[in-house]
Amino acid sequence: MDIILFHSVYGLRPAVNAAADRLRASGHQVHVPDLYEGQTADTAEEGQELLEKIGRDELLKRAVLAAAPHSDKGLVYAGFSLGGSVAQTLALGDDRARGLLLLHGTSDIAEGATVDELPVQLHVASPDPFESDDWLNVWYLRMQRTGADVEVYRYPGAGHLYTDAELPDYDEKAAEQTWRVALGFLDTL
User: Fold this and answer.
1) Across the chain, which distance is largest between two alpha carbons, in Å?
2) Burial grade of 9 (CB within 10 A; 0-12, 13-18, 19 or more)
3) How far apart, in whole angstroms, are the C-alpha atoms of residue 162 and residue 164?
4) From residue 45, how far is each of 9, 48, 90 by CA, in Å?
5) Tally of structural domains, the chain
6) What angle do CA 189, 140, 149 make, to 5 degrees?
7) Burial code of 92-110, b = ≥16 C-beta within 10 A, e = fewer?
8) CA pseudo-torsion sign 81, 82, 85, 88
């Protein structure tokens, strides 16, 4: 399976490469674009500053250019938090997408977006300061209306980026459960 994995607002940090290695060890071809072109952040606030400096339109353009050489194979789009938002946007616009794996983040859904039973899996903390219960309920219903086949996994007590061992949000038990379920999901595609 070809997977494109997008980093969080922190940039392309070791945790993203470790996740890619975990996916590769399970037999997947993984592409990990650096949408910040070498810049990383130590805090979410610094990451937001980098994002604002680059701009969301430019970030999305970089993501599209990174995915384009691989999209003819039918990609699984995946991402962490901000990267999940990017992955979702690209997957909903790619009729060859084979799946969407969202870790810690979602995005608004363009009016009229449709997919043909796209398998989607979301893993998110509960509660999550960036993905409120009300938002996730709306997101879930909107994703279903697009035609996506959606699964949501919630992890009580975990912090927002709970799979990143270098951040205070890290929750080893929730992270391992996430990877077990996510790898099973990828095996079905």
Assistant:
1) 39
2) buried
3) 6
4) 9, 5, 25
5) 1
6) 25
7) bebeebbbbbbbbbbbebe
8) negative
Task: Determine the average pLDDT of the residues in 20-39.
Answer: 98
Task: Say whether 80 sits in a helix, a strand or coil.
Answer: strand
The tokens of 148 are what? 């996506």
E strand or H helix at 167:
none
Confidence tier at 80 by pLDDT (50, 70, 90): very high
CA gyration radius, the chain: 15
Which amino acid does the sequence have at 30? Answer: V
What is d(CA 175, CA 177) in angstroms, rounded to the nearest whole number?
5
The helix or strand, by DSSP H or E, that contains position 30, with its residue range, turns out to be strand 29-31
Q: What is the CATH number of the domain that holds 52?
A: 3.40.50.1820
Task: Residue 134: give the domain boundaries.
Answer: 2-187
14-22: average pLDDT: 97
